[in-house]
Amino acid sequence: MALQESGEMYLETILVLSRKMPAVRSVDISEYMGYSKPSVSRAVGLLKSGNYIAIDADGHISLTPAGQEIAEKILTRHTLLTQMLVRMGVSPETATADACKMEHVISDETFEAIKNHVQGHESK
Hints:
Arc Repressor Mutant, subunit A, 2 domains, two-stranded antiparallel ribbon, elongated
């Protein structure tokens, strides 16, 4: 099952939150993303049925290996694209917003080329 952009954003959010707090719950995701609890609940259910997340008896959400892989990929793209845009003179706020849109639609080939280009300029 191919994951939609919104699913990728949820996985990225769960990864970010899991690095900041000991346990991630739906309410944490709702507050972080600014989405309603019913919307988050529906998305969490879809991610669970797709085997991207696991939910324990206390309602704590964790990424499965498949979810972790996607979340890491999206977060890496977001971070690198944001940094690249800021270096090009884009304001941090706009760079973050634009990177969030770009990270979901850019091909692996193009992202790898951008990453190699950015890393090549960092070593100079």
